[in-house]
Structures are given as structure tokens and as C-alpha cells.
Amino acid sequence: MTLSIGLAALALAACDAEPSPQPRAQLAIEPPSPAPAGASASRALAQADASAPVAVVQGVCPEAARYATNGAGQAFCLFEDLALPDAEVDAYCHYLDLGYLGFSWTESPATAGYACPEGSYYGPNGQGTGYCVFDGLGLPDAAGLSPYCDYLDDGYLGYYWDLCPAGTRYAPNGAGQAYCLWEDVALPPAEDLAAYCHYLDDGYLGFSWTDTPATAGYTCPQGARQTDNGAGLSFCLWEDLWLPPAPDVQAYCHYLDDGYFGFLWTI
What we know:
Layout: E1 66-69, E2 74-79, E3 89-92, E4 101-106, E5 121-122, E6 129-134, E7 146-148, E8 157-162, E9 169-172, E10 177-182, E11 194-196, E12 205-210, E13 225-228, E14 233-238, E15 250-252, E16 261-266
Antiparallel strand pairs: 1-2, 2-8, 3-4, 4-6, 5-6, 7-8, 9-10, 10-16, 11-12, 12-14, 13-14, 15-16
């Protein structure tokens, strides 16, 4: 990958203004699943934070990165224990949307023998600036994808994203499960309203109803696609969902009549 010439001074990508999940009142959900509680307001992920859940998940992060979650609805890919050059080092993270990030420094005799960390390559710009670049990241097509480069001086950087789709709330239940919930959903005035959640593994879910004069003016909530089957049945579908990397992700749709639904998994 060709690096732009003349980037001697690169700005640190801003990660400080990351939103914190907002608590919400506990939902009244009957067994078999305990009720999700309001999400924790904690947002930080410290490198040595033993409370942060850690998992080895194949196919989500690059081979040289570690997958981790912070307990507040975000997942991370972290390149850790980075040996940095003997120089002032700047994060190079503002091109994450193009599939790469890394760090840079001004080259000098002190950095002449430096080798980039595993998983990255050396890419000088020909004007005295050296780069180590992690590319081919295979980024998740998920909401909230952002660089996580505040702690390069501590030897790690990476990126993070939201475990739940846009428009949903992340809600752990305190019993080893987490939920992504669409809530306060405006539903059509149909007697046969039904959840349409058996294709979650294919990345979509929603609900259906029979078209009647009473439902003629109904519009699906924001984020859903409204369609029909040509035989009098209409659908609201949330599609192209990025699902958490867990083997037991399952639909949670039996409270649709109360205006909420979603999916859950074991954490």
C-alpha cells in the first residue's frame, strides 16, 4: 500500500469522546431468560484490566490482534505489547475506514535497526518519516467502528465497534447473557402481527402482518425495510445485521406485542 508523501506530522485519531451506554430501567421479561438490566456506564478498556472479558475468537480480528470486550457493548481488536522505535511515535489511525492503521516516527540513526511488530509492515515515505502499518484488517461491517489509539505509548492500539446494531440497546442480564434490543417499536394495528425471526443466522429479523385498511398508512420504524410478499402480507425487516461472534446467538422475539424484540447470546 502506498503511503501519502509529506505526512511528517500526523494527528492522533480522536477516541476520547466515545459514548457511554445509557442505563435504562430493567425490563420485565419472564423466564426462560432473566431480565436484561441497564448497561454499565463504564467505557474504558485498560490493557491490564482483569475484569474485561477476554476471548479467543477466530475470524474476527487479525491473527496478530487480540479480541476483547469491555462489558459495555463494545468489542475490540488490539495489537498489544508493541515494541516501539526509540523516537517520538504518533498514531496513524485516521484511515481506518480504508482498512489500515499503525504508527509513525521521524527516522534517525537511533531508529535505523528498528523492525516493525508482527502483523505490520515498514513503509517509509521517502522524506524521513517511517511507518509501521497494519493492513488487510478484515474489518467488521458493524456499527460504531472507530480507531482505538489513545494508548500507543503503553504499547497497544487497535479499533473497536458496537456489538449491537444501530438503533438497539446493549443489555447484559447479570446471568451470563447479553441482549441487543429494539425497544418502544411502533407496531401496525394488525391482529395477526407476528415475529419474523427464524432467519437471524442469515443476518435479518423483523415482523409481519396481513394488510388491511387499518394498516394502510403504517410505516416501518427507522432502520427497517418495508416490503411485502405480493400476497397481502407485509414485513418490516432489519437486515445485514452484524452478529456477535458467539456460537449461540438466538432470536429474542416473544415479547414483540410489548414493543421490543432482538437477539441474545452467552457472554
